[in-house]
Amino acid sequence: MTARLLAIFVLLTCVPATAQSTGGAEPSAEPVVTMSPHPDNWRVWISAQANVIFQAHPDFPALYSGPNSLLAGGESKISEVFTLYTGLEATRTTEIVFDLESAGGRGISDALGLAGFTNLDVVRNPELGRSPYVARAYIRQIIPLSKQKTKIQRGIFNVFPELPAKRLEIRFGKFGMADFFDLNSAGTDSHLQFMNWTVDNNGGYDYAANTRGYTFGAMAELVMPAWSLRFCEALMPTEANGINLDFHLPRARAENIEFELRKSLLAKRNGAIRLLSYVNHADMGVYRQANQAFLAGIDPVPDITAHRQQGNVKYGFGINAEQELTGLIRVFGRFGWNEGQHESFAYTEVNQTFLLGGDLKGGPWRRKLDKVGFAVVTNGISKDHQLCLKLGGSGFLLGDGNLNYGRENIVEGYYNAHIWRGIFIGFDLQHVNNPGYNRDRGPVLVPAVRLHVDL
Description:
This protein has helices at about 1-10, 195-200, 285-295, 385-390; strands spanning about 45-55, 75-90, 95-105, 135-145, 150, 160-165, 165-175, 215-225, 225-235, 255-260, 270-285, 310-325, 330-340, 350-360, 365-380, 410-420, 425-435, 445-455.
């Protein structure tokens, strides 16, 4: 299948960029951005996406490597994600969502050696294979709080063409926390925007999820015209980066709360700020205990897994802001922090992150659906986390066998080109300094090419 997709990719790059399907009719005012129509009067939503990313890196300098290092020798990998999205407007206030997904291929170095990994589509356990699985299966209930209606864009997470301007939304079932928390219109979608884990998401947000990025949860969201408040109780994995979720709530769970204020700093421009907090309860280890056991001669290397205790608590905070400067330019940023004493468990090995970025629409060069983006992110870890890696310990992503600590600094830029209907080609380049927080390794340059097809 990969070979066929790559052949299609090569053919698509030869399609004129201005081509539009008109079906023999006059060209429409708005370009078509899906392969199939999705009429507003349908009570069902059926669509699909195919996302293929080719990514590589050349040889880079490394004084040493460990079991969880980014490979110093040049390599290339292809990842594939295929998703079927379905939704049903069961009643005027009830929606049912059911999505199937297949994630195949691999990331460079099997997604090891970087806290800010370069491809968000990669499943962190490639041994799971590409067999289809249920990504989302949940019920969404709308409780109106006003008679006034507001138009809503229909899509993969919303079947309704309009909703009450004031409402309470309840969701229950399987979904991704990143579907609803820490969203940012300029930096969330790895299929059309940035690709790095810590650019599309808050690296300090160790959000509840299995290794494929999904969990079971119950979520309530209060939506008002200018603000929203959402809360979710979700399941944690049974082990760090594990595929299985722990359904025993008294010992393992995650509380997540986010306040979103849709307020612009500039007149007639969109803007928003989101304040996030979370608390995870799980069978987590403590870095300091693992370090002390090694220094006392009890463990041959610092072993975080040998010092786990059910019910340990990890908490963190995040700030997420975006601002439209003109009709073509947006800027955005994130700050994230977690307490850093307990092991990174569900997302990535980051205890502190700062991000600044922006994007520009292609209107000035008559390519209004094209987009160019640029972002800079710097990630850090706690002193105890640093010492664990320096003494030869490993997390579920990092472990060079030693550590000369420096913040992991990443610069990413992309150009996303609209080819025809729902077909987009993206070109991405990332520069990573101190990969895995190690001054003794890198820097490394990671180019990528992305094919996105929206059916």
